[in-house]
Structure formats: structure tokens, C-alpha cells
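Input set for joint prediction.
Command: fold jointly, output C-alpha cells.
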Amino acid sequence: MNKNLILYAAILVFGVLAPFIFPAFKVQLSILCVLIVLALTWNIQGGEMGYNTFGNILFYGLGMYLCASVQVGMFFPLAEWTESGGEKTFVHTPAQFFQGMAVGLVVAAVVPTIVAGLIGYAILGLRGHYFAICTLGLGVAAGEISGGIEIIGAGQGFTTPPFPDVGGLEARGEFFYLLSFGALVLTFIAVRAIYSTRFKLILNAIRDNEDKAEAMGIQTMKYKIIGWMISAFFCGLAGGIMGGLVGYIDSTDVAFDGREMGVFMVLMAILGGKGTLWGPVIGATVFHIFKEGFWTFFLGWQYVALGVLIVVIVIYFPEGIMGWLREKFPERFGETIDEADRKAQVELK
Amino acid sequence: MDFMVFQYPMISVQACLDGILLGILFALIAYGMALQWGVMNIINIAQGDLVILGGYIAYFMYLYGIHPAWGVIVAPIIMYFVGVGLYKLVINKVVDRDLFISILATFGISILFMQLMNFAFGADVVLANSGYGTTFLFDSAVVLPNSKIFSAFISILFAICLVIYMKKSKLGRAIRATAQNARAAKILGVDTEKVYAATFGINAALCGVAGALISITFTIHPYMGLPYTIRSFMIVIVAGLGNLPGVALSGMGLGVFEEFADYILGTEFRIGAVFLLLVLILVYRRFKLSRKREYLK
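C-alpha cells >
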């Protein structure tokens, strides 16, 4: 326990100081934080609950649009803003910007949670691949429909309010980094807290055998919906931050980007090892480093690499890094190995 | 919102006929999906990308001066080998595993195909002009391009040929036996590995035919694959596995729905309406099944 506390403190200190140590990578580090948040929230469904969703992108995109809309709509008419480059006519003062951002992030987190609660009863009743395809459809439908709504920019996109003139580009990077790192810390603490309660055991019971869990008297639907709402809360928050960070929202390429973000979160959690606390964090970090390297040096071939990567990870590496480590060093995970049994298994092979 | 379609009955007739002709094409793709789902128990997200690839084969024949209708014969032959190759490389490793693994792996293939097609053929929306002219019905109130009628006719022809092939030929019987019980088929001497490869190849060939027809009648674009996958998935779950008339009917129903959605909601919401319909169908199905489960209690 004591050792863990030192580890967490070291990570926290390093996290806060990171943008000052590596000033050139501030934006990358912020994106990394958002990716880790997404991987952690996907893991609640895909890893612990056994419900492989492609639809968490819905909450992410929703949060992105909501945060930007609230930030604009609190002070200026939204329709005029999106009509034709409103950000040139209306300028947020610093106070307005930060106020709008704060309220926007709250809305961006709360509304997706409510949406998840409302649609949860209908959607989470589906099992297995029906659930996967249904959520895939949900994400794409949201992207297509939001691409047709005029007030949030329709097909031409939505420019989020530009960062006010306090300290220039440096301050912008630090602000968004600290915001996304804060979201990451919040998510990690929340996820860690719920994983240490009975809630996690219930989720695992649902994953292992839902019918038996129900027969044991667990109201599975209730816990599934609560799990999804927790995911939606942090996905929405991450989306709101990402919208401000990117500065431009497009319905299918940025917000409801099932082809990128929607797959990334699944891939990161699987790469790190689903069903573990640290797996998504490690997976997201490895994936982000790989992705940035590839995006820089093989520009244009990134989706080819992504497709190959998905196939390779899914087929040859479904247990992920944590699963591999667990098999290599079981003692570290608190598992005791019967030497005689292990020898017998080797002989069998 | 635009309710022109109800004020002028002839537009409804137009939408229905368009939808039915389009739906027959969807049904052909869905038939391939039902085949592989039933036999191999995998869901292929790359189905739509195979369709688009078939379309590009016909388009390239058109570019080199060959009439694109010949693509209906060339595309399935090429696509059969693409399908078998895909099976040998990737699909054979996911057949016996969790369905989600197959969904995610084929999703990866889908992204890969999308991007490779984007490199090879460019990101423009293209169509192969067949030069078949148009038919006018009811005093020119209803306009039907002959290419649509041609494509529906060819789809029906291929579907009938395939049904007969599955009933009569040795491979067809082996495929049906594997679908019923893979283990028993293996014991009785069916090489299931070969059957799986052939099934995936036939599915890809069907996609090739449908793609060639789509490139003649509509337009193709490297990123347009996923909606075709979703449509065929939807048709299969509405009709049920192994219910051929059901597949044809629900395909046509989906086509008509899409045309009406196009008229009423506007073209920009067309794909959104398809995906939303999928969600609604699945949710309806979930409540229907849960009622059945309550009876059992």
C-alpha cells in the first residue's frame, strides 16, 4: 500500500510538471490524457462487463458539441456564430471564455449521462454481437444526423471559441493540458474507487454469465445502466475538452468519428489488456506513441497501418500487454503457482 | 421535412418502384451475409467494402472501354479469389472464436480496404455509364433508368442460380451440412476448412456482382462501404437466417423505406435514417424477445 502511494504521488507530480519539462509535446500529452480517459471508460463496458460497445463515441461527440454550444450560446446567438465564421464577429473576453468552458464541461458531462440512462434500458438489453452492431449503428447515426443540423454547423463544421488573449499559445497549451490531466486523474480515481467495491464484482458476474447473475438475485439491468452512465459521464467530459483543444468540430471527422476515436478506444483497451485497471492506461500510452510515430513518418498510410494493427492485435494478441505480463510473471499479480502442476502441464504439451 | 411525396401520388409510385429495384440489390448482398453468418458464424463488417471493390472492377473495365455490364461476370470471378485469399489470411483464425473478435477483425479489414481503395482509385465519387437509356411510365410521370431494371434482373438471376447450386451441387450440400452441424459434417468426411473458404469466396463473389451493378446504377466511393454492411445486417436480422423469401422481401422493404426517407427527410439524412432504423429494429427485437423470456418465467 505504502509503495503504491509513493508511485501514485510520483505519477501525479510528473503529470503536473510534464508540460513544463516537455514544452514541445503539450498538445500530444493532452491528447494522450483524453485517450487514456476514453480507454478507461471503454474498459468498464468492454473489459469488466463484457459488453463490447462501439457506441461510447456517441457520448464523446455529444459532449464535444454540447460544450462548444454552451460556451458560445451563453453569450452570443449560436445560429449566427455557426452561420459564417461567427468567431470573427464575436470575441469572448477571458472571463466569458473560462466561465463558458466551466459551464460547458459540466453540461457536456451531465447530459450524456442522462442520455445513457434513457437509452440504456433499451440498448443494454441486447446481447453479444447484436449489442456491438447496434452501438456501432448508434454512433454512425449520430454522426450522420448531426451533420445535417444547421444550428451546429451542419456539414461545414463548428469552430469552437478561440482561446482568449492571455499568454498566447503557451498558456493555451498549458490550460488544456492541465484540464485534460485533471479529467484523467478524476477518471482514474473514480474507476479505481468503483473497482474496489462490490460493483466491480457484479459487473464481472454479468460478464461471466448474465443469466446466472440474474438468478442469484442481482438486478443486472440496473448495474449495466449505472456502468454505462459512469462511462458516458467521463466520455462526455473528455469530448468537451477535446473539442476545445482541437478548436474545430466536424460531425463525422472529429466528433462522432467512429473510424478513428471509436475504434481507438476499443483497440487501446484491448492492447493494454481488458479487464484490468492499468491495462487501458498502458495500452493508450503505447498506442499513442506508435500512432504518432506512424502518423508522422508514413503520412497517408496511417489507416492502412491502423487496419493491419487492428487485425494483428485482435487475432494474435487478444489478451493484451497486461495479460501477457500476467502469464509471464504470475507471482506479481498475487497468484501462486503450483510448481508440480506447471511441470505436469509442460509435459502434457 | 417535405411532404411533396404524399401530395403527388406519382412521386410515391416512383419512390416505391425505385425502392423495390434498389432493395433487390440489397437483398443480394444480404444473402451473402446470411450465408457466411449461417455457415461460419461470423459477421463481416467488410462486406460493404467488398461490394465497393467489386464496383471498382466494373468501373475500371468501363474506363478501358469495355462495357461495364461485363463486370457482372468478371467482378465475381476476381472477388471469389479475393474472398478466398482473405479467408486464408485472416478469417480462418477468427472462425471458431468469439463473435466480437470477428466483428473487430473485419472492422480492421474494412478500414484497410477503404484506405487502399482510396489510394488506388482516388477519393472521387464515380459511376460507370452503361448507356442503357431510361423507361418512361404513366405519361412520363415515373422515370426509371433501364440500368436499374437491368441490375434488378441480374440480381434475381444470380440469386436463383445460387439457390439451385446450393440445392443440387456437391459443394452446396457440403456447405448446408456444415451450417447445420460443423462437427458432424467433419466426421462424415466434409473438409470444413475448404467449405469455409468456398463460402467466404461465394459471399465475396456475390458482393462483386452487387458492386458491379451498383457502379452501373448508382455511384461508388471508397468510403461508402459501411452503410451496405449495415443494410445487409439489418435485412438478415429482420428476415432471420436461412429465410430466402424473407431476405428478398425485407430487402425491398428497406429500399422503399430509404427512398421515402430520402424524399421526406432530405438526402442528407438518408444514411442517418438507415442507421437509426437499425437501432430501432434491434431495440424492437430486444423487447419482443424479453417478452418471450417472461413467458418462460
